[in-house]
Design a protein that fits this description.
By secondary structure, the protein is α/β, with parallel strands linked by helices. The chain has a single domain, classed as Double Stranded RNA Binding Domain, CATH 3.30.160. It has four helices and five strands; from the N terminus they run αβαββββαα. It has a five-stranded mixed β-sheet. Helix 2 crosses helix 3. The N and C termini lie far apart (117 Å).
Length: 201
């Protein structure tokens, strides 16, 4: 028994050292401690669950935080993955893509990317109710997977990294404003040519 316990403990330490973590156990270590989270569908299930997950992970989610996670669009699609002998679809592949942006001061976009998941479920033409229930269950699982992927992406961000991206965005905006001001000065200093008047007979 002692040997078995030691073996289990050893495996747990080894897996944790490799970064492995069972879903629903441990904590998602996020360097970002505060974040504004919004979405095009402000009251959708995805953004609501993501806010709850971030809060339970120790992130202070509130409107007005310096940096914002904006869920720009969620795209769901399905296609036939295999067919029965009668030519009716037996399996469907569902794809869920979440496009997101990290925004900074003045709502400037610092980062734009997406996460996606795919799953296959069996559609039974003789049990439409059961097939619909299974499809709903699969979609819920996919939404949970999207949230886990989103958390994994957020784990890669640090306050220092976001500050650096903000500084680069500010510098680019200043350079663009300076270039526009210089171009305007050139336009202002260039004498306007009078239209040529042709003598009338």
């Amino acid at each position: 028994m002692i040997k078995r316990n030691l073996l289990v403990m050893g495996l747990a330490v080894l897996l944790s050292a490799c970064g492995f973590q069972l879903r629903g156990t441990g904590t998602n270590a996020l360097s970002i401690k505060e974040l504004d989270v919004s979405a095009r569908d402000a009251y959708g299930d995805l953004v609501t669950q993501l806010r709850q997950t971030l809060t339970s992970s120790g992130v202070h989610v509130y409107t007005g935080a310096q940096y914002k996670l904006f869920l720009a669009r969620e795209e769901e699609s399905s296609r036939s993955a295999s067919y029965t002998g009668a030519g009716r679809s037996a399996e469907y592949q569902l794809t869920d893509v979440l496009k997101y942006e990290i925004r900074g001061t003045k709502d400037v976009v610092l980062l734009s990317d997406n996460v996606q998941v795919q799953k296959v479920y069996v559609h039974d033409g003789n049990n439409l109710v059961g097939s619909d229930q299974e499809a709903d269950q699969v979609r819920q699982e996919m939404r949970s997977d999207l949230i886990q992927l989103m958390l994994a992406r957020l784990q890669l961000l640090t306050p220092e990294g976001l500050d650096e991206m903000q500084a680069k965005a500010d510098a680019a905006a200043r350079a663009e404003a300076d270039a526009e001001a210089a171009a305007q000065r050139v336009r202002d200093e260039t004498p306007q040519q009078s239209p040529i008047e042709f003598p009338t007979k």
